[in-house]
User: What shape does this take?
Amino acid sequence: MKRIFSGIKPTGHLTLGNYLGAVRQWVEVDQHRADADPVFCVVDLHALTVEHEPARVRRLSRQAATLLLASGLDPERCTLFVQSHVNEHTRLAYLLECTATDGELRRMIQYREKTAGAAAAGQGVRLSLLTYPVLMAADILAYGAEEVPVGEDQRQHVELTRDLAVRFNQRYGHTFTVPRAVLPRVAARVMDLQDPRSKMGKSHASTAGIVYLLDDPATVEKKVMRAVTDNDGEVRYDREAKPGVSNLLDVLAACTGGEPEALAAGYDSYGALKKDTAAAVVELLRPVRERHAELVGDPARVDAVLASGAGRARELARPVVDRAYRAIGLLPAA
Ligand code: AQP
Assistant: This one.
């Protein structure tokens, strides 16, 4: 059985980017594979790496879990839990901090972007912002994951995870499975509708260009119809020269199963492209919103799923992490 692992961090409301880049693959593909055992996690510890409000993180953690179930994750087909409920993640992270170097962590793009953001906001940079890719490596390696379905922005962190696994195995003997990132065919990097050269990010302050999974249809429509494009009026797929139009084509392709280049040929105005994209996104998100409305009234059900998921996750991760403790030279507890 191939183990699959991926996570989502409760730093904001889940976005269309999270859905198309990761969650949809978990729901539609990963949990249905006969050869795979998928493990999905709300990585709440990662949400503490930036300024946060405790009650909000708690609320968003529950909301993220509820939305994952509403999106179609089935606890009979996958393991769903909250990272902080399973100690093995932080236990392993320290060993991996003893494997990673300061230089490789400072090269992480997300660290550099988020450090710049914190500095601009006059906030201090938490040490955990530098080290969290190591915690992410622990999240993945603790489960012996072979595949990590993620959006493009997480590719570099999965590469780091691979490097750490290989290095640890070379130094201390084979301990970890070396994982690989699995990206969706289209929409691996959904861009902000108002700033199509920046990724659509759930924690961004300006929300006009972000479609949230829980946005109502009128809001989705308004955001898509106001998406920034360009002035030449030509519908053509070219992410470099025409990032706004290409982003809409990517989203439309992801929603309809088409190819962005081929779809472009069917449009001669931005208005028509926006109208169809808005309609496709509304239809894509409709069942998620409806199931969320049902589930939100039954928090005990969500808690039960998370409790049983954490139990299974502990059973899976404990032997791997124990093996790493022995391999690195720590005396086993009597
Ligand atoms: N814009 C995006 N397009 C495609 N995939 C995306 N993902 C995130 N944004 C996009 C993918 O969603 C999964 C969960 O992301 P995360 O919770 O780990 O956070 P992130 O990658 O840092 O992205 P966010 O949502 O923008 O959060 P903030 O604003 O807090 O940084 C991942 O697989 C990610 O690749």
In short: DSSP finds twelve helices and five strands in the chain. Residues 299-328 form the longest helix (30 residues). The chain has a mean pLDDT of 96. Residues 2-183+298-328 form a domain with the Rossmann fold fold (CATH 3.40.50.620).
